[in-house]
Design brief:
It is a single chain. The chain is of the alpha+beta class. The chain is 29% helix and 25% strand. It is globular. The chain starts with 13 loop residues before the first helix and ends with a helix.
Length: 413
């Protein structure tokens, strides 16, 4: 579940708020909310969904999730604003794969395995940095350019048969779209066309304007829970009344949400209690972002919460079958980055967001312990928890080979 954004404060970037989603879509979604209010219900699937507990506890399945889903898919690993200038770089670990990102002189972002080709040590140890034209291995000083080419070998006479053109850094498929950097961590994976992969999400991200935002105040949590459980808590608001009684329950409507499957991704509209106030206003003035949190799942592991004047990003990275890392950051309009008023608004909003995340994480850790106990052999998702069912169905499709990899790969050629 996600935070509320500012409460009654003036949006410091009203133009961006209004353009965050095409207006026809906003009107359609708001009308769906009003229909739910009138019928005193929410959007529901025809039946419940039974999710086997083994999907959270089976070690062999976990290995396949890492290999198939996290290493072959284009996964968001950074936001472009973290690498604003040529020579800026960032390192990270993607399910045990060390990765180096660097922005080149021509403005593109390259992704490499962060491994020296000589003796295999980690090449770059710093988490991030700037103004790099080359990377020097701390072990034997082999040197690589930002294009990955091997450009320097001390005492090169010791390697008379080495072909330098074959010893550059191992490059990964990398694409920067809508402000996000997508990487496929498996260098043997066929290249996937990111626009084809995003499908309808591409249109949504274009209108949200994520390319025009910058990262503000990144942080990270670590929780003793399966990565999928960490995401499950975001995909329904059935739990809000009980779990978030003192945080966001007073702001959001009870168990009322609009769900859209943008396979393999999803959109969830979580309306606030204020939304009936605009019902009799001219539809041309309706602004969904002021009266709801729009939550997107970008498969497999990123949650994008669209708040009134900024966005909140959460990711769940598997770090063992019952442990995960949860990096999070705020995306804000750069024009107002140093505004004290705006900073106060964002700080208060993100304080709420992290409080809510901690509440959800407590539930997730307790669920993981319960699953490991053997008390249940499956979990039941209610008809109004349909986004959870969709998410797990997408995971199953990937693992079973039912996802259309050929179409995605061919689109890239």
């Amino acid at each position: 579940m996600v935070g509320s954004g500012h409460r009654g404060a003036q949006c410091p970037n009203k133009h961006m708020c209004e353009d965050a989603m095409d207006h026809a879509t906003q009107v359609h979604l708001i009308e769906r909310v009003f229909d739910m209010i009138d019928r005193r219900t929410t959007e529901m699937d025809p039946t419940e969904y039974r999710n086997p507990v083994s999907r959270y506890t089976d070690p062999e399945r976990y290995k396949r999730e890492v290999e198939v889903i996290f290493r072959r898919n284009p996964i968001i690993v950074a936001h472009g604003s973290e690498l604003p200038k040529p020579g800026d770089y960032k390192t990270l670990d993607v399910t045990g794969i060390p990765i180096l990102l660097v922005r080149t002189q021509d403005g593109h972002v390259n992704a490499f395995l962060n491994v020296c080709r000589h003796r295999g040590t980690k090449l770059v140890w710093e988490e991030c940095g700037s103004h790099k034209r080359s990377f020097v291995c701390p072990y034997h000083a082999w040197t690589y350019g930002t294009d990955g080419k091997l450009v320097g070998v001390p005492a090169a006479e010791g390697f008379p048969n080495m072909k330098r053109e074959e010893m550059g850094l191992k490059q990964l498929h990398c694409t920067e779209r809508f402000g996000f950097v997508f990487v496929q961590a498996d260098p043997t994976a066929p290249k996937v066309d990111v626009d084809a992969w995003l499908g309808p999400m591409a249109h949504e991200l274009e209108h949200i304007g994520t390319a025009d935002y910058v990262v503000w105040r990144p942080a990270q949590l670590e929780k003793k829970t399966n990565w999928k459980l960490a995401l499950d808590t975001f995909l329904e608001n059935y739990h809000t009344r009980r779990t978030h009684t003192k945080t966001i329950w007073p702001v959001f409507m009870d168990n009322t949400a609009g769900f859209d499957r943008l396979s393999p991704h999803a959109r969830v509209v979580l309306p606030k209690r204020s939304i009936p106030e605009i019902r009799d206003q001219d539809r041309s003035t309706w602004n969904l972002r002021d009266h709801s949190t729009v939550l997107y799942t970008i498969f497999p592991n990123l949650m994008l919460a669209v708040l009134p004047d900024h966005c909140a990003i959460f990711q769940a990275w598997p770090d063992g079958i019952d442990n995960c890392k949860l990096p999070a950051y705020t995306l804000v309009p750069p024009k107002y980055l140093n505004s004290k008023t705006a900073e106060d608004i964002w700080s208060k909003s993100m304080h709420v967001v992290f409080d809510v995340t901690e509440e959800d994480s407590d539930r997730s850790e307790a669920i993981q312990a319960g699953l490991n106990s053997g008390a249940n052999d499956h979990l039941v998702f209610g008809r109004y928890e349909q986004a959870l069912a969709w998410f797990h169905q997408e995971v199953e499709a990937m693992l079973n080979g039912d996802a259309d990899w050929v179409r995605y790969a061919e689109a890239a050629e």
